[in-house]
Amino acid sequence: MKDIYRTPTIESLAAEFSAADSGSTAAVSRGVTDAPSQDVEAELAEILAGVLHTDRVAVDGDFFADLGADSLVMAQFCARVRKRDDLPTVSMKDIYRTPTVKSLAAGLVVPQNELAPPDVAPQTGDVKAAEPSPPSTDVPAGVMSSRFRTGKYVLCGMLQLLFFLGVSALAALVAVRGYEWIQGGSGALALYLRATLFVTATFVGACALSVLAKWLLVGRFRPRRIPVWSLAYVRFWCVKTLIRISPMRLFVGTPLYVLYLRALGAKIGRNVAIFSRNVPVCTDMLTVEEGTVIRKDVFFSCYRAYDGVIETGPVTLGRNATVSEQTVLDIDTAMGDSAQLGHVSSLHSGQRVPAGEAWHGSPAEPTTTDFRAVEPTACGGLRKTLYTAAQLLLLLGVYLPLSLGGLALVFSALPQLDALLNPEPAFTSPGFYIDALLASLVAFFGGLLAGLIAVNAVPRAFRPVIKPGKIYPLYGFHHGLQRAMTRLTNIRFFVLLFGDSSAIVHYLRCLGYDLCRIEQTGSNFGSLVKHDSPYMSRVGSGTMVADGLSVINADFSSTSFRFSPTSIGANSFLGNNIAYPTRGRVGDNCLLATKVMVPIDGPVREGVGLLGSPSFEIPRTVMRDNRFNDLATGDELRRRLSAKNRHNALTATLYLLMRWFHFYVVALIAMAAVDLYHVHGVAPIAVASLLTLVFTVLFYSLVERTITRVRPLKPLYCSIYDLSFWRHERFWKLTTHRYMQLFNGTPFKNVVWRLLGVRIGRQVFDDGCSLIERALVTIGDRCTLNAGTVIQCHSQEDGAFKSDHATLGAGVTLGVGAFVHYGTAVGDEAYLAADSFLMKGEEVPPQERWGGNPAREGVAVMAGRPEGGKASVPQTAVQRMSVRPAPMRSRSAAQRLRMRRRA
Fold first, then answer.
1. 609-611 and 616-618 strand pairing
2. What is the pLDDT of residues 270-321, one digit of tens each?
3. Rounded CA gap, 476 and 478, in Å?
4. Are the beta carbons of 592 and 612 closer than 8 angstroms?
5. What digits encode the pLDDT tens for the residues 546-587?
6. 853/844 Cα distance (integer angstroms)
7. 787: Cβ–Cβ under 8 A, 6 or more apart, which residues?
């Protein structure tokens, strides 16, 4: 089928076969055959025996079922094979496709230009698809020498700090003056009206600030290259920050959000629906034509970072296009009219999806799957206007004014807080701190209890109104209820509190999940699970889920939506960062690997594993992971599960106490600032913002350092019923926080990473990377980490847990949304393409470009950009980049020479 998609006509398909036959005939005429020699078989067997630490292996033995290997071991085998110049390159996809030494050797094909003498040019019959050139490293004169200069690095950080202080001072001034003006009203009605006017003016001003800053500091975005830490980058960062913190993010998925993007310069047509909370930054280069829908968790920022440079480029979506969940649109990408991009897929720079075609995978390739799950309906301008007005009225006329009124009631009810509004200092009294301590306890734990009741009770009132399977138009009563239900039942704090413990199944069941007959493991779900509707989410008995599951219950078009039940099979295991759609064709007893694309067509998969995007079958389990099965049954399970529950209960208690103490100290800082306002004006309130941020960084750094000092993180291979794993779960719960996002794109993030234990080099550019096990990560000098990247040093498969180090060399670039697993090493100046998944145990040689899911050599699709800034890919050409897996081939003479020079 891959040949069919690559050569979609009889003529081109026949020509491909003719070229292959002529190449084979030429090889035979020179005395060379395609059949693998016994020497290659013996070499592969010898390398595998070394990895498995045994004397010999059977060439016809299955890697996983007979020889006891797993994916980590086979990744190490592939890395060793790649280091041999006399053997062809082998990827993990080849391992799963040919799972014996004999079949692997039989699949090796020596390219004809490798058979020819070095001085002889390749035969004219050879056909090789031209690949786009990598991004040009040409920048204006003097930039290369000063790109990472320390002076610019420090100056950039200082300017960003001044920007933060300025925004904090402005926010403090507005808040104080507004509160004083509101308090000047007489009577409840006057207070309400003043509060409504104030929050309305503040909302409009905050939204307008980002728009004005964009046009004043940058003007119109155009394709260009901006060296990081330069003054041009500071302007870019200021605009990006204001856009990302704009209160308009509350209206993602509404017509008001589309109007906001148009004000920023985006060219967006009628009846366009955007549900992704990843806000585009270079909006002038975003074109979305009429009737297009962009679903949730899509990256389409119109910029990326590469080797210390910000590259901006266009993203163009034609009429009635569909961009599915959890996808990445790199710069210089386009989709034609009625084109589709499947979930967990990506378009690499230079790729174009032709009109009317559906693509999926990473990088995307053609498919026959239809990703449009719901038909559009009528949705007129009056409906959009009324819906937008209702949303604004609820926020500005109900929620925010009532919140301010509630704050006034708290101040009036507590004399200690009311004393802060008097000119005399109040925070110098010891009794004040005791009263504030008691008040913080009541506020924190009382709010926690009230929140639990609200998320379980309020959405149930919406449940009977929205019928599963029925198509509703957007921007109406039912759409409003859908948004409220999704937000109320996806509060991150509660999932973090109950996740990775036995309590999570009870919490999800109270929300409305159908969990069938629960087989309690103590780790049924991780600490990051989200959904569209808990009442239409079903998980089979005996299934375990790692972090990052997104249950997709709602399908959207540009004008309509429909709720549908989503069912996950029994006795299965789901890895990290999986988007599970309503039409998933996966049954019972399946392993879904990290970042897998769940298939929505074809037969129902049962008793197999699925890996990659697009997904392919792998073994459901391997012999090595069955060694802990005896701990998951009988009395031994009951004993260990009871001990795990006690350990997790203590962890949850520590988590609550830690969060409460942070809340208490932040409240004290705020109250002290208010108390000093009468003497020093707005300055203490602005400084309080900086003190709050500094305390947050130091507090969580102290927590993490304490945990790793008492129990240092180290490589593990153990059962989930082992004490070492329970301690690792405690580490996750106590060190998961989101304040790091405030430092994205600044030098301060490197300082914070070092405080948290990361071995990080100089002048690393981090635009939004997540590091799970910080003490196990090593990052070299001048690396570039794009938004949405993840470095995760662990993996869980059923009842087995594994963790190991991850290392990035100097000058490495991780593309947008890339995922790096444990036990990996990326060489100096290597590049991992957007949305790639570097599997456990892989080793990327220096200066190589890898891409795909799973990542492999030579799959990174990148369009060259000359110095003038225009893409080198013809705008009228339709490119179908690399729809084939990386072939097993011998290294070219140039590769061998480069490796010898490095050695």
1. antiparallel
2. 999 999 999 999 999 999 999 999 999 999 999 999 999 999 999 999 999 9
3. 6
4. no
5. 989 999 999 999 999 999 999 999 999 999 999 999 999 999
6. 14
7. 278, 299, 301, 744, 767, 768, 816, 817
